[in-house]
């Protein structure tokens, strides 16, 4: 018997695969996996709400983290976690100062209700329309002074604008943690667990403990079980990218428009000649965590088109971690000169093409240690999309 699938029924095997895998698994499974595979348990690196932003960047750099839990001292001792602050949150204070409402870098043109969340999702002009680098008069000297001032501000300048923190426990369904970490900017989650019984004075006791589960932990855990998702793993990237774009807030492009279409919104790029300061400001305005660095950037006003060259490198919010007050002048340098000044070598971006499967994309990310994959056109290597760990986890929640 030959079964003919429609667009809706094609996703049924994928949905069944993911549902079957998640059915009886809890957060305890991922906690046990991390404990077995890591040389030591992920330490809970946290910060007080009074910690200066400059020191927060240092801690993020020291532990190679993208975000940190923020706590206030509890009245009876211990810590009350108030939220998780991310590098993109910190960038907002550096760029705009603590008086700005965060995290809304662009004035929304419209808003809609996110299905099932009860929250409002803002939508913005496509590709920063009406807010381009050319239209912005950026006084670099004044901007760097604002960065200098912001580095001494307490992280509470940011934490008061972050979403409420959700604590998980080991009995929480794994699907709940997956959906949480598949949301934008949620790089890690805190899990209440218990350490092994300790023998003290002949008595055993269970002590509450908190462990960290990161997006990378969950991606590696799912990859360990990739044979259980054959239909999803065999999906080609063009189909997955189009699904992702169609489910995002409308950015001026029809949800039926393919990412390969000339109407599709391109990823954010900057030319090598752009200063690092302008690159970071661009990230904030477009609320993205990375930019592709290209050899050339050319606009043709008459044709209202943009031509993007192949990707040479990338700059991301992760590079904020090399910033100190003494190194602020480095922000005036072109992006490539800035990158070489704050790190020993500039990593080659991980690039994927239309022939890649989801399986090959995840394997490449983990093998190269990259946080994102740049999806480029087969013909001219023009960047079409960027796939992060957030996107990877999102595909497991899509079906």
UniProtKB/TrEMBL annotation:
The portions of this protein that span the membrane are none
Any Pfam family hit: CBS
Bias-annotated ranges (Acidic residues): 130-139
> Which keywords does UniProt give here?
CBS domain, Repeat
Query: The CBS domain covers which part of the protein?
Result: 38-101
Q: Which PROSITE patterns match?
A: CBS (PS51371)
Residue stretches of biased makeup (Polar residues) = 112-125
Region Disordered: list its residue ranges: 100-140
Show the ranges annotated as biased composition (Low complexity). Answer: 100-111
InterPro entries xrefs:
AMPK_gamma/SDS23_families, CBS_dom, CBS_dom_sf
Protein name from the UniProt record: CBS domain-containing protein
Q: Which organism is it from?
A: Dispira parvispora
